[in-house]
Design goal:
By secondary structure, this protein is mostly helical. The chain is built from 11 helices and 2 strands, in the order ααααβαααααααβ. The chain is globular, with a radius of gyration of 17 Å.
Length: 268
């Protein structure tokens, strides 16, 4: 399933302004798929942006706890072993994974804020509205290519990695895999171990434990995320629900890769 989106290089007017604001707020050099999709839903960004701006100090302060929760599950469920083989990454690819780690952790919490707001459980972060990036400096990365412009072999890898995990099949192509298409040899090398990880029972157990933790970390109430369509569900609510499931999956994948991989010529 491919969800509609407005790509960064196609954004104009208020959407381009919203994307620039998101890059500043998240502290990353790209706009994640969730926001590119929400830009296609009438009124979605107008609803979402003021709320995440208000919550951004709380979100930034909570990101370390997201990583701690994910890392604990990586260890508990031995996801490094589930990866199946030692992965070696170039510094450029590792930088891309680090950028997505920052963006995914931020958006995992932001989707919890929005889910709670849609359910009538808004709360102030206790800080004034702002666009804080939490002091993290994300590395510069090249723009993401279009899925359609990837070679057929790379599109097939993106398709496989986007369908084998417990959540991604409900949303489409996770941006990380498309972005890594800029490094074909490394994406090809990652296909088998990452597919093995995503399809493993250990990963499914870790994911089931992790995917609903965002609201509790923020002190919010929000509905349990799931992949099932709900009667009368509005497009914005559907998108928040689906992306909450996908982002949780990609955080765990990213944490496994960052912790168990080696940088070329350097042992972690």
């Amino acid at each position: 399933m491919a969800l509609a989106q407005i790509r960064e290089n196609e954004a104009t007017g208020s959407v381009a302004e919203a994307y620039a604001r998101l890059r500043r707020t998240l502290g990353v050099p790209l706009v994640n798929f969730i926001w590119r999709h929400l830009a296609t839903i009438d009124g979605a960004l107008d609803f979402a942006l003021p709320r995440i701006a208000q919550a951004s100090p709380l979100i930034d302060a909570t990101i370390p706890r997201v990583r701690q929760e994910a890392d604990a599950l990586v260890v508990e469920h031995r996801l490094g072993a589930a990866l199946g083989s030692q992965v070696t990454l170039s510094p450029a690819v590792r930088d891309v994974i680090a950028v997505y780690d920052r963006g995914n952790c931020w958006n995992f919490l932001a989707m919890s804020v929005l889910a709670a707001a849609r359910a009538g459980h808004e709360r102030s972060s206790g800080a004034p509205p702002g666009e804080a990036s939490g002091g993290e400096t994300a590395p510069a990365v090249p723009p993401m290519p279009r899925y359609e412009d990837l070679a057929p072999q790379l599109r097939a890898i993106v398709d496989r990695l986007g369908s084998v995990g417990p959540a991604a099949r409900h949303v489409g192509h996770p941006s990380l895999w498309i972005h890594l298409g800029l490094w074909p040899d490394e994406l090809i090398a990652l296909e088998a171990p990452c597919a093995q990880l995503l399809a493993s029972p250990a990963f499914a157990r870790a994911y089931a434990s992790f995917r609903s933790r965002g609201p509790a970390l923020l002190g919010l109430q929000a509905p349990e995320p799931g992949s099932e369509a709900l009667p009368g569900e509005q497009p914005l609510d559907r998108s928040i629900r689906l992306f909450r499931t996908l982002i949780a999956e990609m955080i765990l994948v990213g944490r496994v890769l960052l912790h168990t991989s080696q940088t070329r010529g350097v042992s972690n």
